[in-house]
Write a structure and sequence with these properties.
Helices cover about 40% and strands about 20% of the residues. It folds into 2 domains: about 120 residues, Response regulator (Rossmann fold, 3-Layer(aba) Sandwich), CATH 3.40.50; about 90 residues, Orthogonal Bundle (Arc Repressor Mutant, subunit A), CATH 1.10.10. It is α/β, with parallel strands linked by helices. A hairpin with a 2-residue loop joins strand 6 and strand 7. The radius of gyration is 20 Å and the shape is elongated.
Length: about 220
């Protein structure tokens, strides 16, 4: 099971941006524009791995919602991150006093936001390995599973490790030598051409998702949309 994130944000544009980028990174996302909608979600017994709250919500504020979350025995151990345009020290202190794990001031970088989310998740769930994702492509290291959309893709151990290495360095060029080192435990051949053969097989098995693997001539490969 991969990480689930609940986001409560009344700005529909920002909510859409956060939902899109979190899903792109492999998270399952539950998005709400009002605190009351999230409370209904709670009442149905659903429990995310982390909750992101805007402080200035219509009706019930993020602070009030956090107090309810931390007062609920089933939810109190879930990490909470506040988003807010408020920058006063007393507001931040109030958030931390309510049990917040982080307090992110608007405007903020989406990349930094996701990085901080990952840090908190690693702290709370150290035994779990995160899913790596790009578009419809998802890879789960802890389950040794790969999906293109809803279709499960069967890869060999070497193919899986190559794809994982590429996804870990998403957007970066990965040299053939680096990929060769990654598959060394699986009995790789001693020539870099072996990596090219594996890549060809991975692309074929991924089907539509094979398009994410780009060749950088004379250097190696990278994954990007």
């Amino acid at each position: 099971m991969h990480y689930t994130i609940a986001v409560v944000e009344d700005d529909p544009d920002l909510l859409e941006i956060l939902e899109y980028n979190l899903k792109k990174e492999g998270f399952e996302v539950f998005a709400f524009e009002r605190g009351e909608h999230f409370l209904k979600f709670m009442s149905e017994g659903k429990k995310p791995h982390l909750v992101v709250l805007d402080v200035m919500l219509p009706g019930m504020s993020g602070f009030e919602l956090a107090k309810i979350i931390k007062g609920n025995e089933a939810y109190r151990d879930i990490p909470v991150v506040f988003l807010t345009a408020k920058t006063l020290e007393e507001d931040k202190l109030k958030g931390f006093e309510l049990g917040a794990d982080d307090y992110i001031s608007k405007p903020f970088s989406v990349k930094e936001f996701i990085a901080r989310i990952r840090v908190i998740l690693r702290r709370y769930y150290p035994q779990r390995l995160e899913a790596f994702g790009l578009g419809e492509l998802k890879l789960y290291p802890d389950r040794f599973e790969v999906f293109c959309g809803d279709k499960k893709v069967e890869l060999t151990r070497a193919e899986f490790k190559i794809l994982q290495t590429l996804l870990e360095k998403k957007g970066e060029v990965v040299k053939r030598s680096t990929l060769m080192d990654a598959i060394a435990p699986f009995g790789r051949e001693t020539v870099s051409r072996a990596v090219d053969v594996h890549i060809t097989k991975i692309r074929k098995k991924l089907g539509e998702c094979g398009k994410y693997i780009k060749t950088v001539r004379g250097v190696g490969y990278k994954v990007q949309e």
